[in-house]
Amino acid sequence: SDVRVIVRDISGKYSWDGKVLYGPLEGCLAPSSRNPAFLISGWQPQALGAQKDFSQIEEGDDVLDKLLENIGHTSPECLLPSQLNLNEPSPPPRGMNRDQEKEIIEVILRQNAQEDNYIQRCNSDSAMKITSQEQPSPVEPRGPFYFCRLLL
Hints:
Layout: E1 6-8, E2 15-17, H1 63-74, H2 98-124
Antiparallel strand pairs: 1-2
């Protein structure tokens, strides 16, 4: 049977379809029938034919973009109230124009590059490296009533 888990953040902007994460084991045959084992009132089976196999997507394609597009087509209840597709960028907040949004994105990307440079410098600095540590060996408990708590 197919199990579908859709995870969304509090704003509903980002989602992930759990069916893509789990598939049949390698070498196992997938079930040939696509008939649902149960009926949902108001559910239309036309969406079953439109399902895509995301393992067959070419390397240059954006899998998340295709997934969000597919979720919008197969599960319209997941769409935002504005009826924008899940793979379309949301409009900028009120009071902010596209130029301000681009500036904010540039600042974030610049900060990300600075953080990457800092991490590279720290990784190459020998003073920042620590010596490898061994995992401590387990110690037998010595308390007289230590094993009594396991009975609870």
